[in-house]
Specification:
- This protein has two domains: about 150 residues, Jelly Rolls, CATH 2.60.120.10; about 60 residues, Winged helix-like DNA-binding domain superfamily/Winged helix DNA-binding domain (Arc Repressor Mutant, subunit A), CATH 1.10.10.
- It contains eight helices and twelve strands.
- The strands form three sheets. The chain has a four-stranded antiparallel sheet with strand order 1-8-3-6. Strands 2-7-4-5 form a four-stranded antiparallel sheet.
């Protein structure tokens, strides 16, 4: 577990010895969740930060009709719950759902942000990292707003792909299934598939599983 936590942005700059001491001091609760199991339900109150040890997590909202809208996709070493845990009395605005079998380490926010009796120097570094993580989460939400603000399915898709990890200059890797991608873009799956087929026919893109290859940049 410690080697995964070492990759987390929350613990950047800590040595293995410091991180091992932090874990021994704070004693995080480690839990395993099955695919599609709800880790945190919307409107719940929490006081823990979750760090993904293995697996993947989706942050989503469900509308009145039961449609799922994916907000964020998180993977190994990513964290969630920081803002809600810090706000204390504010409920979660999203559902946190395991995308696959997932192991989470939960750190109590009060223990996380307060130092210990030994006044270890790395606590200040952890607090600085927490601010960085919150800032990056805010930027990710801005990207989501940029994507949803586009008027057409094609424009939404192209905006999203722009932010996706690139395997090569013209090859984007999408972490979602087709239904999950539709949920993220907040569009109908059939309409999305139809638009992607048109783009393939127009030789704009080529689709290979979760890879999208641009044929003409």
């Amino acid at each position: 577990m410690i080697h995964i936590l070492k990759k987390s942005p929350l613990f950047v700059g800590l040595s293995l010895q410091e991180l091992d001491h932090f874990i021994a001091c704070k004693k995080p609760l480690v839990k395993t969740f099955q695919p599609r199991e709800i880790i945190l339900a919307e409107e719940s109150h929490i006081k823990e930060i979750g760090v993904i040890i293995t697996g993947e997590v989706l942050l989503s909202k469900t509308d009145f009709y039961g449609n799922e809208n994916i907000i964020l996709h998180l993977k190994e070493a990513d964290s969630f719950g920081e803002a809600i845990a810090l706000a204390q009395h504010e409920p979660s605005r999203v559902n946190v759902i395991a995308k696959s079998q997932t192991v989470i380490a939960f750190f109590d926010i009060n223990q996380f942000i307060t130092g210990c009796q030994m006044f270890c120097s790395y606590h200040q570094k952890i607090n600085e990292n927490l601010l960085q993580v919150l800032a990056k989460k805010l930027i990710e939400l801005h990207k989501k707003v940029d994507t949803l603000s586009k008027r057409t399915i094609r424009d939404k898709l192209l905006e999203y792909i722009h932010y996706c990890p690139k395997l090569e200059k013209n090859v984007a890797l999408i972490p979602f299934s087709r239904q999950e991608l539709a949920n993220y873009l907040n569009v109908d799956r059939s309409a999305l598939s139809r638009e992607m087929k048109i783009m393939v026919d127009e030789k704009i893109i080529k689709v290979e599983g979760k890879k999208i290859i641009f044929l003409n940049l």
